[in-house]
Every structure is written in C-alpha cells, then in structure tokens.
From TrEMBL:
<dbReference type="InterPro" id="IPR007492">
    <property type="entry name" value="LytTR_DNA-bd_dom"/>
</dbReference>
<dbReference type="Pfam" id="PF00072">
    <property type="entry name" value="Response_reg"/>
</dbReference>
<keyword id="KW-0597">Phosphoprotein</keyword>
<protein>
    <submittedName>
        <fullName>LytR/AlgR family response regulator transcription factor</fullName>
    </submittedName>
</protein>
<dbReference type="InterPro" id="IPR011006">
    <property type="entry name" value="CheY-like_superfamily"/>
</dbReference>
<feature type="modified residue" description="4-aspartylphosphate">
    <location>
        <position position="53"/>
    </location>
</feature>
<feature type="domain" description="HTH LytTR-type">
    <location>
        <begin position="132"/>
        <end position="230"/>
    </location>
</feature>
<dbReference type="InterPro" id="IPR046947">
    <property type="entry name" value="LytR-like"/>
</dbReference>
<dbReference type="Pfam" id="PF04397">
    <property type="entry name" value="LytTR"/>
</dbReference>
<feature type="domain" description="Response regulatory">
    <location>
        <begin position="2"/>
        <end position="114"/>
    </location>
</feature>
<dbReference type="InterPro" id="IPR001789">
    <property type="entry name" value="Sig_transdc_resp-reg_receiver"/>
</dbReference>
Amino acid sequence: MTCIIIEDEIPAQKIIKNYVSKLPNVELLGTFNAAIEANSFLNHTTVDVVFLDINLPDISGIDFIKTIKNPPAIVMTTAYPDYAVRSFELATIVDYLVKPFSFDRFLKAINKAKTRIEKPASSTENNTQEILFLNVDKTLHKIVLSDILYLESDRNYITVATKNQKLSYIDSLKNWMAKLDETQFIQVHKSYIVNRRFVDKISGNEIYVQENRIPIGRTYKQELLSILNIT
C-alpha cells in the first residue's frame, strides 16, 4: 500500500513518517507542506492513501479533496475535533486522526484505509450500499447514495431528497457530481440531479421522480433522452 503525507507542521510530519516506517506493507512516496505541491504529484502518480491535514496554508484539506478526480482513500489529521465531524461529509474520507494520536490509533486508520482499498470498485452490490454522512444542523445524517431520489440546488444550498427525508446544507451540484455514479445519476437541469432508478415518467419538460415533478432544462433534454434510450 502506498501513501503520501500533506502536512505543513514538521513535528506532525515526523510522527506520521515514523509510524509509516513501522509498517512493512506501507510505502511512503512523498511528503508535502502544501496542497498545491501534492496536486502536481497526484496528477502523474497513483497512491492508495493520503494523510491530509485539514488546515493547510493555501487551501483547506476538505476543499482540496473536492478538486481531486477519483481521490484515493483519505485519512484526515487535525488538532481540532470539531473539524473531524465535518470531514465525514465526504465519502472518500475513511478516518480522521486528532493530534496528537498514538500508533495504535494510527494503525486503526490504516486498517480502515486497507478495507476501503480492497473493496471491489466494480461490485454493483457494494456500490449500491455506498454511504456518507451529511452534517446538517450539527447532526450527522446517514445517507445511502443509491437511495437518493434527487438533488436540488438553490443558490449556495443543496437539498438531498430520499424517500424518507430532505436535508439542506451548504454545498454545490458540482461537488456532488464528482462523488456520484455517472451511470446512475443524471443532471437534468442546472439546479437538479436525478437518480434514473426512480424516474417514473417524462411529460413535456418535466421528469417525474417518485411523484416529484422536476423541470428539465432545455440544454439537458437531448442528453437525458439519449441516456434513457428514448428516441
């Protein structure tokens, strides 16, 4: 298993390096003080795990993850426990380590990352059960991605709608498209993404998703019909 460290605090770098050196099956490929340096490295090198500090000088660790296409398993590190809760909003994050952390706690994070890496990416059963936790009003809500009916954007807010609940918080459709399965979710309007699994019918410029009437944007309609194999 390969890894890199993105951490601007030298003492924290040294601790993680020391812990990694104790694990014969984990290889450290690089250490970076800033996200922009790591970004260049990740553009041409594939790694299994990234140990990522939340507070970085040029961009926050959480915002940096959102810029990575097909991100590896992420283990967040932070001195602030409150940030750890927010970190679980992103499905690619497997664990968080609150500084200072012991070798035992570090090993637990490694094992979580190993489990994520070994999970078959092509397994339909696993994909349909992929989950994440949304931090809304200081409460973590479990969401099974395949159970999402649609997502609605309203200015800086996103509403995630499932059969049982609707959750609204600050985010963007662009960030969601990066984490959703493109074969399952379709953007039908500048403000809407729908789960094709729950599409009941299309009438004129509206698509019905479990009795929810959602507008179809003019620039999205032809691609939508093509994806759904409608001629």
